[in-house]
Amino acid sequence: MTVQLLTDPAQMRALGSLPATFAASLAEQGTPQFIANASSAMLLARVNGHDLPLTVDDGGHGRSYVASPHSAYVDYARREMDLVGLRHGRRAVGAVLGLTDRLLRAARINRAVHVDNWLLSTNLHGDWQGEGLPQLRAALCERYPDHFLILRTLDAWSCPRLLDAVRRDGWIMAPARQIWVTDDLSRDWLPRKDRLNDRRILRRSGLTIEEPEQLSSADCERIAHLYALLYLDKYSPLNPAFTPAFIALLDRTGLTRFRLARRDDGTIMAVAGMIARGGHATCPVVGYDTARPQHEGLYRIACYLASEWTLERGLSLHGSAGAAQFKRARGARGEIEYMAIHARHLSAPRRAAARLLAGVLQAAVVPMMRRQGW
Fold first, then answer.
1. pTM surpassing 0.70?
2. What DSSP string describes 147-185?
């Protein structure tokens, strides 16, 4: 089995697949044009009939967690302590994060190649079940001998065979977050009282719901703004900072379908941008006008649009992380998500750092996730 690693955008575009077109755009124009707080180089791997976007980072801190393990495990976690209102164990968690910070900096964890990385909060891996993983891993280790190899957003629910393949290949499994999934929306979401209340809020809002065939440039600007109001301003600047160009790319390639809630004057007030792969859907683009009063329920409307879109297509819903109580009330249940790290080709201290990270997270943090519903 041969593995191709492509860096030329023209060669990527010639392949014609959605992953190749996506990767070519970022490789051609530069990642920061699309994700303002990422600086990764974009490549494409061809392995066993699958085209996989790859991001390569040479270090640096303070960028989005979608390409920065340090941001995921240290910087974002510090912000999460405030978001979830952690009280019990706060001092202990803070001490662990301080040690983790020093450990990961010393290990140069951000010097990494991320495999099948779409630079989204959730990478749905579709029909890739790990075919050719050992060959891909060997090719990447040869080309990037000083980089960690990383596979984000792995779980036993959405990609069990890929997760098994990664484990068989000897990768280190570091728990990442608790995600909220809904197996059957007709059973788990549709009869819920909260779902009925959300629908009632939507009907009383006077907003018009649409799913345009193509977004206008003004739509892309507005969607990027609404997303930023929620995910960057309200939550954390370490979330991926989608630019209007990235929203346009998601729309143009067909990777994402957008369901919009508009006012009579045409202003978009809430948005849900949906991706479907491998029988699952997720909503990486959620936004609403956070300046509006809470009683208008715009966040609830955006989430309702995402669930309704998923139900209509007979898919299960990957609700990503966060807002645990809100999602449980609408039929979701928790699953632990992992980041797989390959480090066998690196120095002993760097390997040890990755193993220590995974061990501490599994022993100390996963029980807290399950107990407190993070």
1. yes
2. SEEEEEEE-TTT-HHHHHHHHHTT-EEEEEEEEEEES-H
